[in-house]
Design goal:
CATH class: Alpha Beta
Largest sheet: 6 strands, mixed
Order of helices and strands: EEHEEHHEEHEEHHEHHHH
CATH architecture: Alpha-Beta Complex
CATH topology: 2-enoyl-CoA Hydratase, Chain A, domain 1
Distance between the termini: 23 Å
Shape: globular
Helix content: 40-55%
Number of helices: 10
CATH superfamily: 2-enoyl-CoA Hydratase, Chain A, domain 1
Number of domains: 1
Radius of gyration: 17 Å
Strand content: 15-25%
Structural class: alpha/beta
Length: about 250
């Protein structure tokens, strides 16, 4: 398993969307675009009642933005387009009419925390510590910030955004509201996710759709807001500070 992919598998009414990248499930632009489109398509697929979002491998859920692509950004428009990839995924999840269950098996960083935060119900293992590392490279969690703040609150989001060097435990994330349950192993997590998602499939799909609209009320401006935030990140990634910092990751 070495080639990046996004795939959708349907089982007992549950659409399992899985993404993978060999670099710790980091997300380059093409994978972000495919992920957003796959989520949108699953939302209109009548064979799917509930969606589970997961990543391949057994260690890292998502390492966030692809450093390889960040290093190669040389103008603000290219930067805006790249960071818009995360905005498009979050907005696809927000507007999807079906509940999205997050399955977080391991560490998640930066944009990955944003993706986990944009799920409607998230379950994890005790290894699923989180970190917002963007400030470390001179950017900041501008695009994912609204999704993370919605789950952790402004206090929790600002804490991990400012303390950009530290991983915060899965238990901390549970206490703040990101994770609903934390399990001892990936096997236990998968059993719980499967049972939970399949049980949801027995519920009224119209009720779940209307509940989701209720839960996301107040985010109707996110298409514009996250696009504006992507432009900020696209500008900051060109700063001398960030360019020099990214060189250390080569």
């Amino acid at each position: 398993m070495s080639d990046p992919y996004v795939k959708l598998e349907i089982e007992n009414g549950v659409g399992y969307i899985e993404f993978f990248h060999p670099a710790h499930n980091s997300l380059p632009g093409d994978i972000l675009a495919e992920l957003a489109q796959t989520i949108t398509n699953a939302g209109t697929n009548d064979d799917i009642k509930v969606i589970v979002l997961k990543s391949g491998g057994d260690r890292t859920f998502c390492a966030g933005a692809s450093f390889k692509e960040l290093i190669n950004i040389n103008d603000a428009e290219t930067g805006r387009v790249f960071f818009s990839g995360f905005a498009n995924v979050i907005n696809a999840m927000r507007k999807c009419p079906k509940f999205i269950i997050g399955r977080v098996q391991g560490k998640t960083v930066g944009g990955g925390v944003g993706v986990a935060s944009a799920t409607d119900y998230c379950m994890a293992t005790k290894f699923a510590s989180i970190k917002l590392s963007e400030l470390n490279v001179g950017i900041g969690p501008f695009v994912v910030g609204p999704a993370v703040e919605r789950k952790l609150g402004l206090s929790g989001m600002s804490q991990i955004a400012i303390d950009a060097n530290s991983f915060y435990s899965a238990e901390w994330a549970k206490q703040k509201g990101l994770f609903a349950h934390v399990y001892e192993s990936t096997e236990e997590l998968d059993e719980a996710v499967k049972a939970f998602a399949e049980n949801l499939c027995s519920y009224n799909t119209e009720a779940m759709r209307d509940m989701k609209q209720m839960f996301w009320k107040g985010t109707e401006d996110w298409d514009t807001l996250l696009a504006e935030r992507a432009a900020i990140s696209g500008r900051l990634v060109l700063s001398d500070f960030t360019k020099n910092k990214l060189k250390t990751y080569k």
